[in-house]
Every structure is written in C-alpha cells, then in structure tokens.
C-alpha cells in the first residue's frame, strides 16, 4: 500500500490558503476520489512525492516533458542562462532564434509571437482573427479545451467537464453568444452554423487532434472540409496545437494530416517545462498584431530569456533528432498493444484511442469520435482504475477526459511494468 500521510496533511493545509488546495483544477483528484500527491522532484520517467513514493509518470506535466523529467539538454540551457539575469523586458537575440526555429518547423507559421501560456495564445489568436475579419463570432467544438479565456469556457473539455462546469459562471452572456459550438468530427454541423451566421464568423478554432475529452482523433475529411469551408467563407482557421505541437511530429498535427491552418497556437513542449505559449500564422494575419498592426497584445515577461533558453534547447533537440518520434510511436504502440491484450484476456471490450505518444482508454464499448461518445464512458469505473494504477506506482491523469503523454524516458522494462499494472488494475476496478 502506497502511503500518502504527508501529501494528505499538505492537502489539508493547502486548502486554507489556495482555492481547492491546487493552482490548477486538473491537479485535484475530485473526479477519481482521494487527495492529490504533492511532488518534490522528478527525473526521467519518475515523479517523487513528499511521502517518498516513486511513480512512473504518464502525464509529464500535462505534455511538456516529452524527453522525460529534468532532461539534461534543457536543464543545462537553463543553468547557462540564469547568470545573465532572469528578465530584461527588452528584446534579445534568443527571441529571434526561437522564432526562426518555430517558423522552420511548423508549416503554417510565417511569423510568431511568444506569450506565457496556452491560454494567452488562444485568446490572442482569436483577437487577431476578429480584428482581421471585422467579425465577432467564433466556432469551437464540444469537448475541446483552449485554456480558460472567457470565449472558450463554453462546452469546454479538460478540467471544466471533469468538474461538471463546461459552461463557466462568470462568462458574460454577450461573450457566450459569440461562441458557437459544433460536435467534433461533424463537418455538416459546422456548415449549418456558418450558413446560419453568414458573414459573421471570424474563426473556427479546434484541437486538430483532441486531447481534452480524452484522446479523440479527427477524420482527415473533417480537417480538409474545414479548410475548404474557411477558404470559401473568409474564415480564419486556427489549429490549437498546444498539446499536439512538437509532440505528434516536429510540425505538429498539421504536419501529420497535411492540412495547413491560417493560424496555430502552441504551448507546453515549446517551453520545455517553463511557462511559455505562442501564436503564429500567415504574415498577413500576424502583421495585424501590435506594434506592426492595430490588434493589441503584450506581455511583461513574454519572451523571457530563461523560458526561451529552455524552449530553444527542447525544440533544437527535437528538430535534430527526428528518431525521437519513431521511438515514441514504438513505445506507445507497445503499451496500447499490451492493454488490448489485457482487455481480451479479461473478456472486456473497451475503447482505446491512440495517435503517436498520446492515448486514452474509455470505459465504453462505443467508438469514441466526439464529446457525446466520450461521455458514454463509465467514469466511476475510471476512478477505480485510476486509483488501482496509482497504488501500483503509475501516475495517470486524474480524469477520464484527458489524454496520456508518453515520454522518451519510458523503457521496454517500464512498458512491461505498465502493462502488468494495467492488467491488475482492470481486474481490481471490476471487483469494486
Ligand atoms: N489549448 C489546449 C489544446 C490545451 O490542452 C491547453 C492546456 N491543457 C490550453 C490550450 C491552455 O494552456 P495553458 O494551460 O498553458 O493556459
């Protein structure tokens, strides 16, 4: 039995001074029961908590740590940058270098602006789309999460749906009215919305592979159809690649599917674990951003030298080591093949969705292609499964509506350990 005395005490204490005891709701264990574990350090595939437990980490800080924790290449770059000061608030050479690197890696990006989080990236991208088109409405997809900007907390996935607040209080009716929603993978529904709001839609924003309702892959025809529709109607197509950027391929999901958006938003891996986001796209659109153009967007710490050093080291490594993606594909495929075998052995028929190093198990027999089908999963069963895995030293996302992220630190031995834990946890979860 893994002990959690210290974490439990810290969680009690945290709740007095921090809302819900956590600085981001997705870290709470509300949906799965129990208390969150408080971490002290992490290295390679492992997290170490306050009680001295070691966990095999399959969230990896919700995506950024694609090379595992405390990767030397990133740590060294940060250490080298620190003596030169933590912030200048003035331009640096590093910002040009990382911008040039991003432009060279991501197909749709001709110019890019660095920000401090994925939320800032998506908020800014739709402001540019609205400023450019002179239109107010946006279309997003049910179950997609684009950070906590007001416009996106409508039918939102991730922590919002986990906590049962996909439409957050505090968002004004006016803002909510400007966000139209459609089911993921449903091109006809989008066409109908566009038709009913002719000439009023500034942008269609989506996760080109959705990771925030559990992992849901797009039909290629859906992405291609959105591209055609946006071209025809003068709508800005935005791919939110905060999760998928640099994870599915050096150029993200747009490289994998060969569909090029007008704008892209990035985060997570781009900062190598530091708080970084970015948005970019066609020159014509990005030249609308201040001070080149009239759409205002700024940031005291944007392009922070330490964060840029971490990001630069991470992206340079990924660009120079394309075999990283082959390795991640092979390891992740083995993990999922092992899970499939376990399901078969136990006579269970659940759905596992995977692309590259992202995957989810849904406790439903239905094919999961959108938010409605994702919601057919038995979340109580997921909760028991999650806790059984935790007891076996495997740290998963504490919600059905999240994807797992595999890092290059997961070895063959760890795959075997994971698959065995999965078998036992599936059995235990069904006894509960
Ligand atoms: N977009 C997507 C697709 C995300 O997954 C997330 C965060 N998980 C965000 C935006 C928001 O990023 P952040 O948490 O850095 O604000």
UniProtKB/TrEMBL annotation:
EC number: 5.4.3.8
Pathway in which this enzyme or protein is active: Porphyrin-containing compound metabolism; protoporphyrin-IX biosynthesis; 5-aminolevulinate from L-glutamyl-tRNA(Glu): step 2/2
Subcellular location: Cytoplasm
Cofactor(s) the protein requires to work: pyridoxal 5'-phosphate
Tagged with keyword Isomerase: yes
A GO molecular-function descriptor: transaminase activity
CC terms in the record's Gene Ontology section: cytoplasm
CDD domains registered for this protein in UniProt: OAT_like
Positions bearing N6-(pyridoxal phosphate)lysine: 268
Reactions mediated catalytically: (S)-4-amino-5-oxopentanoate = 5-aminolevulinate
Keywords: Cytoplasm, Isomerase, Porphyrin biosynthesis, Pyridoxal phosphate
GO biological process, alphabetically ordered: protoporphyrinogen IX biosynthetic process
Alphabetical list of InterPro entries matching this protein: 4pyrrol_synth_GluAld_NH2Trfase, Aminotrans_3, Aminotrans_3_PPA_site, PyrdxlP-dep_Trfase, PyrdxlP-dep_Trfase_major, PyrdxlP-dep_Trfase_small
Subcellular location, principal: cytoplasm
SUPFAM superfamilies to which the protein is assigned, alphabetical: PLP-dependent transferases
Protein family: Belongs to the class-III pyridoxal-phosphate-dependent aminotransferase family. HemL subfamily.
NCBIfam families membership: hemL (TIGR00713), PRK00062.1 (NF000818)
Subunit organization: Homodimer.
Name of protein: Glutamate-1-semialdehyde 2,1-aminomutase
Organism whose genome encodes this protein: Pontibacter diazotrophicus
């Amino acid at each position: 039995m893994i002990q959690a005395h210290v974490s439990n005490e810290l969680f009690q204490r945290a709740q007095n001074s921090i809302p819900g005891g956590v600085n981001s709701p997705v870290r709470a264990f509300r949906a799965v029961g129990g208390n969150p574990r408080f971490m002290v350090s992490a290295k390679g595939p492992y997290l170490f908590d306050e009680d001295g437990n070691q966990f095999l980490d399959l969230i990896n800080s919700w995506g950024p740590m694609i090379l595992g924790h405390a990767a030397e290449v990133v740590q060294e770059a940060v250490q080298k940058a620190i003596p030169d000061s933590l912030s200048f608030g003035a331009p640096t050479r590093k910002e040009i270098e990382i911008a040039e690197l991003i432009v060279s890696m991501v197909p749709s990006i001709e110019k890019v602006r660095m920000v401090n989080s994925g939320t800032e990236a998506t908020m800014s991208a739709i402001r540019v789309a609205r400023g450019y088109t002179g239109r107010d409405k946006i279309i997003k997809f049910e179950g997609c999460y684009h950070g906590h900007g007001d416009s996106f907390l409508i039918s939102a996935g991730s922590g919002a749906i986990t906590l049962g607040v996909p439409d957050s209080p505090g968002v004004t009716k006016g803002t909510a009215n400007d966000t139209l929603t459609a089911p993921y993978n449903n091109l006809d529904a989008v066409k109908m919305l566009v038709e009913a709001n002719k000439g009023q839609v500034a942008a269609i924003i989506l996760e080109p592979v959705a990771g925030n309702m559990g992992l849901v892959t797009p039909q290629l025809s859906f992405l291609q159809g959105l591209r055609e529709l946006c071209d025809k109607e003068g709508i800005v197509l935005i791919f939110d690649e905060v999760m998928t950027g640099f994870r599915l391929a050096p150029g993200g999901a747009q490289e994998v599917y060969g569909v090029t958006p007008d704008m892209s938003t990035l985060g997570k891996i781009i900062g190598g674990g530091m708080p970084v986001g970015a948005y970019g796209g066609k020159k014509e659109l990005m030249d609308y951003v201040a001070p080149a153009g009239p759409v205002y967007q700024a940031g005291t710490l944007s392009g922070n030298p330490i964060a840029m050093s971490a990001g630069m080291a991470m992206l340079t490594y990924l660009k120079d080591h394309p075999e990283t993606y082959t390795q991640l594909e092979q390891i992740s495929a083995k993990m999922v093949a092992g899970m499939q075998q376990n399901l078969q052995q136990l006579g269970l028929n659940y759905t596992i969705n995977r692309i590259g190093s992202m995957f989810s198990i849904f406790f439903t027999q239905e094919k999961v292609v959108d938010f409605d089908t994702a919601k057919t999963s038995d979340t109580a069963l997921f909760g028991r499964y999650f806790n059984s895995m935790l007891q076996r030293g495997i740290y998963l996302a504490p919600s059905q509506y999240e994807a797992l992220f595999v890092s290059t630190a997961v070895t063959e031995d760890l795959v075997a350990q994971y698959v065995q834990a999965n078998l036992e946890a599936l059995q235990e979860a069904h006894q509960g």
